[in-house]
Amino acid sequence: MSLYEIVSDFERPDPELIERALSLYFCIVGCRVGPRYVMDGGINPLEREWRICGPAVTVRPEQTDDVLMAQIAGKYVKPGDVLVIDAGGQANAACLGASMTNGYREMGASGVVADGYVLTAEVIRKREGVPVFCRGSVSISRGMDHPGWINSPVICGGVIVNPGDLILGDEDGVVVVPRDHIEDIISLVEGRGNEREGATRPRDGNIPPREPADAPYYKRSGAEDKLAKMDNIKTR
Questions:
Q1: Which class does domain 15-191 fall in?
Q2: Strands 136-137 and 52-61: what pairing?
Q3: How far, in Å, CA of 118 to CA of 139, rounded?
């Protein structure tokens, strides 16, 4: 019996759903799926303006500072995929570098999310053309000597990610939408008028509008009504 496994292919979301998701505020999607599907805030884009939206190809090295599985993962990438690398937050060595990122770009990847640190961050930013989200950069890389898993469940930024889950990322962070719920979540967010094009601004949380548009925000948000119903609060 093999301990490690490489799954060469999996079912990806309908491309039309991905196009619809691109038009949304990703932070509002995060509010809808809940905190269990929003990655740790320490994972950020190397360039602030970068956005990613695509199905996850998952990578889990047995040794978090070994890059063999991340090196070979490009073999299983299809255009539009997002590489998700479970490096366990390892800060002592890079889990990704510019050459690997370039290899993903050659295969059509639309982005990378790594729960770890990268090497040659400047080259990734200026030359590779693939948005990378990570915890930062470090000046050392180890070897490529140990096996692991590709397209098996991983944990990245505290979130369980399965191959084919939809990965959304921008300067606010990274959101994971489970594959079986992508259409429902997108439709829910669209129904609340939170598309980026044509929307004046996103609404916070799950609170519906309760006041006229020209009312102060503390009224429109429902905060004043909610506070008024709480006991033991004195206003002076």
A1: alpha beta
A2: unpaired
A3: 8
Domain boundaries, the chain: 15-191, 206-236
Report the C-alpha dihedral over residues 8, 130, 112, 186, rounded to 10 degrees.
-90
Task: Give the amino acid at 116.
Answer: G
Give CA–CA dist 163/189, Å, rounded: 23
Token code pair at residue 16: 């039309």
Which pLDDT score is estimated for 141? 93
DSSP 40-67: -TT-EESSTT--EEEEEEEEEESSTT--
Q: Which two tokens stand for residue 141?
A: 């890389």
Q: Give long-range contacts, CB 8 A cutoff, 24+ apart: 136-139.
A: 136/91, 137/46, 137/94, 138/91, 138/92, 138/93, 138/94
Measured distance CA(74)–CA(211) in Å, rounded: 51
Which residue is it, tokens 């992508």?
A: 182
Consecutive H or E run containing 185: helix 182-191
Per residue in 55-100, pLDDT (tens digit) is: 999 999 999 999 999 999 999 999 999 999 999 999 999 999 999 9
Q: What is the dihedral of CA 139, 52, 175, 152, to 10 degrees?
A: -70
The closest alpha carbon to 121, from 68, 38, 54, 50, belongs to 50
Q: Name the amino acid, one letter, at 211.
A: E
Distance of alpha carbon 101 from the chain centroid: 17
pTM of this prediction exceeds 0.85: yes
Given the structure tokens 């978090």, which residue do they identify? Answer: 64
Cα 67 to Cα 117: distance, rounded to the nearest angstrom: 12
Residues 61, 68: Cα–Cα separation, whole Å: 8
